[in-house]
Amino acid sequence: MLYLKYMYIIYLKHFISFLSENIALNKPAYQENPHTALPEALTHASNAVDGLKSNLDAWGGQCVISQNDLKTATWGVNLTSILSIHHMRIYYRTENVPWGM
Predict the structure, then answer these.
(1) Which distant-in-sequence residues (6+ apart) come within 8 Å of 36 by Cβ?
(2) 27-48 pLDDT, tens per residue?
(3) Is the pTM of this model over 0.85?
(4) Structural contact between residues 59 and 96, judged by C-beta atoms closer than 8 angstroms
(5) What is the rounded distance in angstroms from the CA atom of residue 88 to the CA atom of residue 47?
C-alpha cells in the first residue's frame, strides 16, 4: 500500500508541474493586420506571450489587438522546437469585465 501512495504523490507532482508550464512564454510571436491607430506597445503580438494577463483591457498593454472590420485576425507563436501540446488556454480581451456579464 505504501508503494501505491508513493506513486500517487509522484503522479500528482508531475501533473501539477505540467499544468503550470507555459511553453509559449517569451517565444517569437506574429500577427497579421495589427491595429494601426493604437501605439505598437498596446497591440504587439508579443503581448500575448509575455505571461501577463491581469489587465485584459485594450489600454493595458497585455493584449494583442488586430485591425477593426476584418474577417480574420491571425496570430501565431513560434515555439522554436517540436513539442507535444496537451491543451491550450486562450485569454480573450474582455475590457476587464468578468465573463458572462
Answers:
(1) 67
(2) 999 999 998 899 999 889 999 9
(3) no
(4) no
(5) 17
